[in-house]
Amino acid sequence: MRNQISNNVPKGHFAVYVGETDNKKRYVVPIAYLNQTSFQELLQKAEEEFGFQHSMGGLTIPCNEDAFFHVTSRLNNCL
What we know:
Blueprint: H1 2-7, E1 13-18, E2 25-30, H2 37-50, E3 59-61, H3 65-78
Parallel strand pairs: 1-3
Antiparallel strand pairs: 1-2
Protein name: Auxin-induced SAUR
InterPro entries: SAUR_fam
């Protein structure tokens, strides 16, 4: 199953899980986001909350989807 999920991520992208509840959603985002300050702030929140132990088996960002969409929509306009 894990290989099937990873095959759904296009080259140059990575998957993240977003949400503040147990019902997190999976999104695929460009690797270029990693260089952006606003996305790095989301990653810092993830590090503070989870360290390197993400229960979803992948990178989990502990914010609501609206905040995630706000950050990523601004990044989409910049890239």
